[in-house]
Write a structure and sequence with these properties.
The protein has about 160 residues and is of the alpha+beta class. The chain contains 5 helices and 6 strands. Strand 4 and strand 5 form a beta hairpin.
Length: about 160
Amino acid sequence: MRDDAAGARALRAVGLRVTQPRLAVLGAVRAHAHATTDELIVAARTHLAPLSHQAVYDVLRVLTESGLVRRIQPQGSVARYEARVGDNHHHLVCRGCGGITDVDCAVGAAPCLAPGHPVDGTGFVVDEAEITFWGLCAACAAAAHPSDTPPVPTREADR
């Protein structure tokens, strides 16, 4: 469900005028994580039918530049958009179905996630990491190797 009041507050908070196209596109991005532009056009048009392709592209650019929306583009994929911003999360991408899942940033001992030489000692300040994990989601793994896939836990106690 689209929350126009929250969308309007978010737009104003970053200094943007509140317009119907911006509300429709922002609402679509918030409702459909990792959606493509074409998917967002369809979703936004359910709230604002005369919305043009170009208007959606323009709004997505403005929302991305303002930091309200994040644009990601895994290798071999078209651009996708999400409203989860500002937390430096990463993504799991299924090589089978192309599905994308958010994964929180690794914490603790994760040496492969920390930049090493030659970054260390150069004065380069890292403020964000963009990491994509590739593999198969549970459904695609089960379809590819039905006998090798362990059963998926169904109860919290089994996890």
